[in-house]
Amino acid sequence: MKAALYRRTGPAAEVLSVEDVDVPDPGPGEVRVRITASGINPTDWKTRAGLTGQDPETFQIPHQDGVGVVDAVGDDVDPSLAGQRVWTFLSAFGNRWGTAAEYSVVPATRVRPLPGDAPDELGACLGVPAVTAAHCLLVGGSGGPGALRGRDVLVAGGAGAVGHYAIELAKHAGARVVTTVSSEEKGELARAAGADLVVNYREPGVVERVQGFTDHVDRVVEVALGANLELDLAVAGAGTVIAVYANEPEDPVIPTRRFMVANAAIHYVLLYGVPAEQLQTAVSWTAEAAGAGALSPLPVTRYGLDDVVAAHEAVENGAVGKVVLVP
């Protein structure tokens, strides 16, 4: 099969290559997926660049997320999975067979059925972004998605991949959603996802506009804690949970006393370290929402497998929407 891979970490143009490798066989508890689209996340290029300190032992086929059809199952796997169309998540986590290839072998626990009428673009967009969004909306709370009904949610960066799904999942759960964006173009994306109020954070009066929508949010899905602390605290109160899923070049200084007075909490979210039970809860909610037609694909830019370097560089340079590799 053809696969994009790297044997050492570094710049995309220096370490990524497309090669012929043997089609892997699924082992016990695993399935093999014929990949029809592979989604690229920021953590994919950061791992390939060496920013996470993970050098491959032999070679690594990157990308955590993908969509395709199960074409073989290993021992101890339900044989009825064969032939099912599925989306994958955390495919390259502790596994050399990521989705940037014609076939990927993953634990059966890391695939979920994709509704028959859902496009490949949606399946490739789920995984890390949608499951991260789901966990951010649930972490530190109780009662599951139902607890969000009638609540107010603030989503920072509503046009980003995690922000997009945070809006859609929160609306699916019955919450009201306000989101911040940096441009009118991104504002249109956030409105299309269902946000009740979209605020351009580059314009004056951001805090006042959000406070006009609500003076107390129950949940913040946060992409830039340091930059957004003043806004988050302005609408935080007893029980507010701020779920932070991304870091910044400089670690922010946390005003502990203000958080104590507000009785608000910060939870940090990195999907790869989420406890198994909580991860499965987030995955199950994502799968349910996808099955209900509540989730939509991001705007997609497609690259062929041979253009994997350009695809990685596009994500590294902040491409809007989702970059997808088509084997």
Automatic annotation (TrEMBL):
The keyword Membrane does not apply. One of its GO terms (molecular function) is oxidoreductase activity. The keyword NADP applies. SUPFAM superfamilies: GroES-like, NAD(P)-binding Rossmann-fold domains. CDD domains: zeta_crystallin. Residues 12-325 form the Enoyl reductase (ER) domain. Keywords: NADP. It comes from the Bacteria. This is NADPH:quinone reductase-like Zn-dependent oxidoreductase. It comes from Actinomycetospora cinnamomea.
